[in-house]
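Support request from a user on the community tier.

User writes: "When I paste my structure tokens into the form, the page sometimes reloads and wipes my input. The last time it worked, I copied everything first. Here is what I submitted, just in case something in the input itself triggers the reload:"
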């Protein structure tokens, strides 16, 4: 073409035609593809630091989210093959006190269940001191560490993936927003 501006004009005029052709060749209603990720040697460090001990039930869903898919088919790993450490250092430490077991019975039972499967529950020694507890005051499945923050660094250096257990206040039901 002798005039360069005509070449640019032609390109702009052809663009809608090219887009329409590409859109028409795509399926009208495509769907997501399920991918079976090849998980190997999972090591999870679940960090729980809550502003309300009543949120611990929701935070324990992070343990479920790691454990359940790996113990079910097609992975069928045995729990001993899934090293999980739960490190607690917020208000939820009160749920670990034996004197509070009845008050927080449901989450204590869930933690005990996971502990029986091999999940390690660790609590920050500095945090329990803040609440006036000692190791003698806590459930038998709990290990007291010197400091949650130094433990976070230690276990990450040992190859554990950090999983922050984020629990937001639920404002809507699933039915409302689905």
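"...and here is what came back when it finally went through:"
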């Amino acid at each position: 073409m002798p005039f360069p501006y005509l070449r640019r004009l032609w390109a702009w005029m052809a663009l809608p035609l090219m887009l329409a052709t590409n859109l028409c060749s795509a399926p009208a209603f495509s769907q997501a593809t399920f991918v079976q990720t090849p998980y190997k040697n999972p090591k999870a460090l679940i960090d729980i630091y809550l502003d309300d001990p009543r949120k611990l039930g929701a935070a324990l869903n992070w343990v479920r989210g790691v454990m359940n898919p790996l113990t079910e088919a097609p992975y069928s790993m045995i729990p001993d093959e899934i090293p999980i450490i739960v490190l607690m250092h917020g208000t939820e430490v009160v749920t670990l006190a034996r004197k509070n077991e009845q008050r927080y019975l449901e989450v204590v039972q869930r933690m005990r269940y996971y502990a029986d499967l091999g999940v390690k529950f660790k609590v920050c020694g500095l945090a329990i001191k803040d609440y006036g507890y000692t190791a003698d005051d806590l459930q038998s499945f709990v290990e007291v560490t010197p400091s949650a923050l130094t433990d976070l660094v230690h276990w990450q250096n040992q190859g554990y993936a950090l999983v922050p257990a984020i629990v937001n206040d639920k404002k809507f039901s699933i039915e409302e927003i689905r």
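Agent notes: The reload is a front-end session timeout and is unrelated to the input. DSSP finds seven helices and five strands in the chain. The chain has a mean pLDDT of 89. Escalated to web team.
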